[in-house]
Specification:
With 219 residues, this protein is of the alpha/beta class. It has 11 helices and 6 strands. The chain folds into 2 domains: 129 residues, Rossmann fold; 80 residues, Arc Repressor Mutant, subunit A, CATH 1.10.10.10. Helix 2 runs parallel beside helix 3 and helix 8 packs across helix 11. The radius of gyration is 17 Å and the shape is elongated. It holds the Pfam family Response_reg. It comes from Actinocorallia libanotica.
Length: 219
């Protein structure tokens, strides 16, 4: 796995590089500005980019814009975005073009090394990894949705874990239930949201995006 890190905080940037190299991962370049990051993507053709949301010169959305540009230059590039706190508009903007090979984590999650590495590998393998705190806040801010209102408390728990990018096995382990129970809950979620009742990845994504789109409407 070839990785480029874009982070203007030198301590975090070098700390990430050391952590990943200690895990025998190939950090091919680090960058402290969006331009340097894009140049590194062009030069090294990484598999994964770890990108800070707020970067120079204005420290607003340069990181998000650079991540979107990097994916346009290198289709299939996995991107794991790091943010100091939940930024609803940026999360939904990043996910708007599709959730495959995308992650959005709070920086505090980096200190929980096992969770951080799990999210990194999940994104690199084509999945999605959204910080549970991001999911919780997006769900809390969501507008009323008739379909969502019909979900039971357990179904909302399942959908929240799906939004983090977890598969059925991981959801079952987190909720301490059987995979069969999770499968039934997901089928019920699809039915209540008027989605075809199957477990195909596009249906899972559609269910999650119902929440994200509702949250975006409040931004």
């Amino acid at each position: 796995m070839r990785i480029v890190i874009a982070e203007d905080d030198a301590l975090l940037r070098e700390g990430l590089a050391l952590l990943l190299r200690a895990e025998s991962l190939d950090v091919v370049a680090t960058a402290e500005t969006p331009d340097a990051f894009l140049a590194a993507v062009d030069a090294h053709g990484p598999d994964v980019a770890i990108v800070d949301v707020r970067m120079p010169p204005t420290h607003t959305d340069e990181g998000i814009r650079a991540a979107v540009e990097a994916r346009s230059r290198r289709p299939g590039l996995a991107v794991l975005v790091l943010s100091a706190y939940v930024e609803q508009a940026f999360a939904t903007e990043l996910l708007a073009s599709g959730t495959a090979r995308l992650g959005y984590l709070l920086k505090e999650r980096v200190g929980r090394v096992e969770q951080f590495l799990d999210a990194l590998h999940r994104v690199a393998e084509g999945g999605t990894a959204i910080d549970p705190d991001v999911v919780a806040q997006l769900l809390t801010r969501s507008r009323p949705d008739r379909g969502l209102e019909r979900l039971t408390a357990r179904e909302r728990d399942v959908l929240a874990l799906m939004a983090e990018g977890l598969g059925n096995t991981a959801v079952a382990e987190r909720l301490v239930v059987t995979e069969g129970a999770v499968h039934k809950h997901i089928r019920s979620i699809f039915a209540k949201l008027d989605l075809a009742p199957d477990d195909r990845a596009d249906r899972r994504v559609a269910a999650v995006l119902r929440h994200l789109e509702s949250a975006r409407g409040l931004g």
